[in-house]
Design goal:
Elements: H1 2-16, H2 19-22, E1 35-36, E2 39-40, H3 50-75, H4 90-98, H5 105-115, H6 119-132, H7 137-163, H8 177-185, H9 189-214, H10 218-255, H11 260-293, H12 308-315, E3 331-332, E4 335-336
Antiparallel strand pairs: 1-2, 3-4
Helix pairs in contact: 3-7, 7-9, 8-9, 9-10, 10-11
Length: about 350
C-alpha cells in the first residue's frame, strides 16, 4: 500500500516538473544547474524564501505605521478617534449581526413598535453601527503611507537592479503570485522583474495622492492623481503591450518557438492586459471628473455614511438620533465626507 502510494506520488511529481511542459525543446533542468552570465540560475526551492521575507516585511510595516506613519498623520491634523459609537441595544445588535445591516422599511416599522423608537432614530442607529466596522481615517492614512513608501522603494530598487544590465523601460507591479512563481521557476526572471517594476512606476503616486487627500490638501491630491493616471495609462497601455508582450509573443516565438508553458505564461500576461484596460478606463474616468469638478473623490473604506436625514439630525442636537457629537455621521475628522475614493 505504501509502495503504491509512493509510486503514485512519484508519477505526480514527475508530471508536475515535466521538462516538456516547462522548458523549450532541447533544454533540460540539468542545463539550468550551471551559472548564467556569472550569476546562478533561479531554483524552484528559492520560492520558499518568500515566507520569511514576507514575515520580515510585515514586521517592518507594523513598526513603520506605529512610529513613523501615525506621528505624521497626527502632525497634519488627522485625529486619533474612530466614528461615533452607536448606543448599545441588544435587539438592534442582534438584527444587525444575524439578519441584516440594511433593514427595509417593513423591518424598521416592526423594530419601531418593538422598541418604541422613532423609525428615523433606528435608521440613525444602523448608520452609526455600520460606521463602527469601518477603519478610521488615521488607520487608512498609515496604510497608504506604508504603501507609498514600500512601492517607491521597490520601484527604485527595481530600476537600480535593471540598470546593471542596461537601461530598460519602466515596468509593472501587480503581477499575480502565480505569474511571478512561473517566471522564476522556468528562468523567465527578466520578464517577471520588468512586469513588476512597470506596475511600481505608478503605484506610489496613487498612495501619495491618498495621503494628500486624507490630509485635506485637495489641490495636491488632484495633481498627484492626474499624474498617476497619466503614468498608469502610459505604462499599462503603452509600454506593457508594445514592448513586453511584443517580446514574449513575437520575438520569443522566433528565437525559441512555442511550448506548453510558453502558452500558459503568455496567456497570463494577456489576462493582465485585459485588467489593464478595465482599470485604465475607471481611473481615466475619475481623473476626468477631477479635472471638470476640481476635486478627486474620497476612499470609501472609512468614510462614514451620510444622508439628508443625517444632516438634519446633526444640525438639531435634539433630533431622533439623540446626539450632538462633533464626530457626526456625515463628517470625517471634522471635514465633510460627501463622496468616495474609487479603489484601484
Amino acid at each position: 500500500m505504501a509502495t503504491a502510494a509512493a509510486g503514485a506520488l512519484g508519477l505526480l511529481w514527475g508530471w508536475l516538473w515535466s521538462e516538456r511542459f516547462w522548458l523549450p525543446q532541447n533544454v533540460s533542468w540539468a542545463d539550468l544547474e550551471g551559472p548564467g552570465d556569472g550569476y546562478g540560475y533561479p531554483r524552484a526551492r528559492h520560492i520558499l524564501s518568500v515566507f520569511p521575507v514576507a514575515a520580515g516585511i510585515f514586521s517592518v510595516r507594523l513598526l513603520f505605521e506605529r512610529f513613523i506613519a501615525k506621528p505624521c498623520a497626527l502632525h497634519v491634523g488627522i485625529q486619533d478617534s474612530g466614528p461615533y459609537q452607536a448606543q448599545p441595544n441588544a435587539i438592534l445588535e442582534k438584527v444587525f449581526v444575524s439578519i441584516t445591516k440594511y433593514p427595509d422599511e417593513k423591518r424598521l416599522e416592526g423594530l419601531s413598535k418593538q422598541l418604541d423608537w422613532d423609525v428615523r432614530k433606528i435608521q440613525c442607529w444602523f448608520r452609526h453601527r455600520r460606521n463602527q466596522d469601518k477603519p478610521p481615517t488615521l488607520t487608512k492614512f498609515c496604510e497608504s503611507m506604508w504603501r507609498f513608501t514600500f512601492y517607491l522603494c521597490i520601484f527604485c530598487y527595481g530600476i537600480k537592479f535593471l540598470w546593471s544590465d542596461f537601461l530598460i523601460m519602466f515596468v509593472h507591479h501587480l503581477a499575480t503570485i502565480g505569474l511571478i512563481t512561473f517566471s522564476y521557476i522556468n528562468n523567465m526572471v527578466r520578464v517577471g522583474t520588468l512586469v513588476m517594476c512597470l506596475h511600481d512606476a505608478s503605484d506610489f503616486l496613487l498612495e501619495a495622492a491618498k495621503l494628500a487627500n486624507y490630509a485635506k490638501y485637495q489641490r495636491l491630491c488632484d495633481t498627484l492623481f492626474v499624474i498617476f493616471s497619466a503614468v498608469f495609462v502610459v505604462t499599462r497601455l503603452g509600454i506593457y503591450p508594445f514592448w513586453i508582450l511584443n517580446t514574449t509573443f513575437f520575438e520569443s516565438w522566433e528565437m525559441i518557438g512555442p511550448y506548453p508553458s510558453w502558452w500558459l505564461f503568455n496567456g497570463l500576461l494577456l489576462i493582465l492586459q485585459v485588467l489593464h484596460v478595465i482599470w485604465s478606463y475607471l481611473i481615466v474616468r475619475i481623473a476626468f471628473k477631477a479635472l471638470i469638478r476640481g476635486k478627486v473623490s474620497k476612499d470609501d473604506r472609512s468614510d462614514v455614511e451620510s444622508s439628508s436625514e443625517e444632516e438634519d439630525v446633526t444640525t438639531n442636537p435634539k433630533s431622533a438620533c439623540g446626539s450632538g457629537s462633533s464626530n457626526g455621521a456625515n463628517r470625517v475628522n471634522g471635514h465633510p465626507g460627501s463622496s468616495y475614493w474609487a479603489e484601484e
